[in-house]
Amino acid sequence: MMNDFLIFENISKKFGKQQVINNVTFPVSKGEVFSLLGPSGCGKTTLLRICAGLEEPDNGRVILDGKDITDFSPNKRQVNTVFQNYALFPHMTVRDNIAFGPRTAGWNNKKIASEVHFFLELIQMSEHKNKYPHQLSGGQRQRIAIARALINRPLVLLLDEPLAALDLKLRQRMLIELDTIHDQIGTTFLFVTHDQSEAMSISDKIAVMNKGVIEQIGTPAQIYEAPTTSFVAAFIGDTNFFEGTVSEMINSEISRIAPSDFPEITVYNDKHLSIGTKVYLSIRPEKLNIAKTQPNTDKLINIFKGTVEDIIYLGSMTKFWVTTQNYKLSIIKQHSSFLLDEEPIRWKDEVWISWNPEHGYLLDQYAETDENLLTIPT
Description:
22% helix; alpha+beta; 378 residues; CATH 2.40.50.100; 5-stranded antiparallel sheet; disordered C terminus
């Protein structure tokens, strides 16, 4: 496609007998933030290193702006990398760290001074320009690393878990700053992370990786609301899974499925699966409603009685685990009203769980998944 700026084409890589990347192909559009998301060992950092020229693929090509760069040395690729450990020169000031690349490239002093000033202002570090890395916070050091990587105006900036060493609040602040920097510079970002919240916050597109392959590519909303596999559904946030078969066609869009050891569930059958087809259903915890009294609902609404087994209060919401029909369901209740005015739901209370058929999602396939990621039958 015309907008495909960076292309990974049929990339495979082994380390010894271990297949780390298995025939991976995907495009990245110019100017977008594209995240490779997945657990440790899924191959995302290896893909990044192949793009940077730090690893060679066993098969496949990397194409950047219409050029095959697979065999280019790292310094010929117009690609720069920001690492988790910053990799700053400890004996250089902030200003000299940022200026290192242009000086090495032979820029004249006037241009270097102008560009360093621009990036110091961009990352809000002008007042610290004469300090050394050991005098800065982790977030400040990471900003310097980003500025140093961007000052040469690379076609692609590779970010390898760049926020992993920071605490939670600093990570959240740095995500906002990184997004602002991207908006002002417009460089294509390839962002590697195992943290779903980071990927969801900053990305235009996300590729979810598992065991050397890409399970799904899409926008954050597509990945979350319409996962194609059980792995994606479980890795991106919490979910509840049901396995069963289509038992009844109510109309052209609504069906019933019969899970094992659970009553029939009404589902939105957007895939038009026929009776007898095996299906896997994912329902996000925030899509479920919980109440102490039985709600008056439409006959198509799923409604089941259960017992509260655990409760975690999280300020803006409460998370419940409810056992119903031999399943333990995860439910999130957002606190949209003043909570102290309500009668609280307590441990061991009998409650009613309900959800709209359209709020569940039928998966295209059930991937082999770490059971610790799933909400599964007890």
